[in-house]
Amino acid sequence: MKWLLLLSLVALSECLHKVPLVKKKTLRQKLIENGLLDKFLKTHSINPASKYFPELASSSDAEPMTNYMDTSYFGTIGIGTPAQEFTVIFDTGSSNLWVPSVYCSSPACTNHKRFNPAKSSTYKATSQTLSIAYGTGSMTGILGYDTVQVAGITDTNQIFGLSQTEPGSFLYYCAFDGILGLAYPSISSSGATPVFDNMWNQGLVPQDLFSVYLSPNEESGSVVIFGGIDSSYYTGSLNWIPLSSETYWQITVDSVTMNGQSVACNGGCQAIVDTGTSLLSGPTNAISNIQNLIGATNTNGMMLVSCSSINSLPDIVFTINGVQYPVPPSAYIIQSEGGCSSGLQGMNVPTASGELWILGDVFIRQYYAVFDRANNQVGLAPVA
């Protein structure tokens, strides 16, 4: 596994602002190396739904643990004047920007970069507080304003969170410092204006959209493009899917099939296109059925699959707005030096519209994704 410094921010042009992303060593790998995986699986409840419905989050200090970032993509941003650099996940499944701060003494803060307001001439304090629960970690802190530099863009007067506590062990082992949320302001904690909204309001991007390419197999070249679409990353045409909710990037799925047979989502279901979730998640019963179909077996918390079966397994096909989006076994089975495991995960999240799927990085690596705020739609096309 490569250990790389995060690439510096670059701008493709005045119109296309790209942030290079780099894949890093996974949380699960770090836990295994430190002999902590078994302890985590036995002592941490698993509740990935808390990211999407905070009222479901655990109120205890023990944070839930799941495979939610088993493959992660990072970029570098600057906050303050002069800029203090942080690595962040660009997360379409949340809406807040936050980084660790000098006010935080949690173990997860002490081994990450921490923002120091006293060293920024443009920082403005507020009396507002912030509290966010994700599927596998949480933070509390305060809100402040400062200049954020990302993808060659200088985003002034941006509100962001400065963590004061990051309880539990999950964030301690993560290679990133903070999170930059790219979902809608309607789900932003404490009503904080998201970074992309602030960019658009200041006229810093030419189009009210951004796009994402996630490279496979630890290759370089992953990018977030603010304000533009780069057709060199995909083949054919973009298919546009209207949002079913302007909160997360939520869409309606017509069906989920394998070998032409329905395996889930009978009568339609909901899905969230989420760059901040590494796996392909769905309702527990549906995922369990698929795990059985692909011959996955539970071994010490990992759903192991025979590597030799990859070439013979069927695609998982998501039909969305009448268009089929196949996810091949080479994508939904994760291959590593230790063998092969399923990239699927069961989770139950109640919605008014039925069962919910999370189309995470396992899915997005197959499809260049455009997140169109102007028209409230997602565009997908097979990667080039």
Identify low-pLDDT runs: 1-16, 37-50, 53-70
Find the CATH topology of the largest domain: Cathepsin D, subunit A, domain 1
What's the total helix number?
8
| CATH class division of the largest domain | Mainly Beta
Main sheet, how many strands, which sense, barrel?
Answer: 6 strands, mixed, barrel
Radius of gyration: 20 Å
Overall helicity? 10-25%
CATH architecture of the largest domain: Beta Barrel
Query: What is the fourth-level CATH superfamily of the largest domain?
Result: Acid Proteases
Strand order of the largest sheet: 3-4-9-5-8-7
Overall structural class, as computed from helix and strand content, comes to mainly beta
Shape: globular
Distance between the termini: 24 Å
Mean pLDDT score: 83
Number of strands: 28
- How many discrete structural domains? 2
Strand content: 35-45%
Which features would summarize this protein structure in a list?
Cathepsin D, subunit A, domain 1, 2 domains, 6-stranded mixed barrel, 12% helix
Give the arrangement of secondary structure elements.
Elements: E1 10-11, E2 17-24, H1 27-33, H2 37-43, E3 72-79, E4 84-91, E5 97-100, H3 107-110, E6 124-134, E7 137-150, E8 153-165, H4 170-173, E9 178-181, H5 195-201, E10 209-213, E11 222-226, E12 239-242, E13 245-246, E14 249-253, E15 255-258, E16 261-264, E17 269-273, E18 280-282, H6 284-293, E19 297-299, E20 302-305, E21 316-320, E22 323-327, H7 329-332, E23 333-336, E24 339-342, E25 344-346, E26 356-359, H8 361-364, E27 367-372, E28 377-382
Short recap of the structure:
By secondary structure, this protein is mainly beta. Helix content is 12%, strand content 40%.
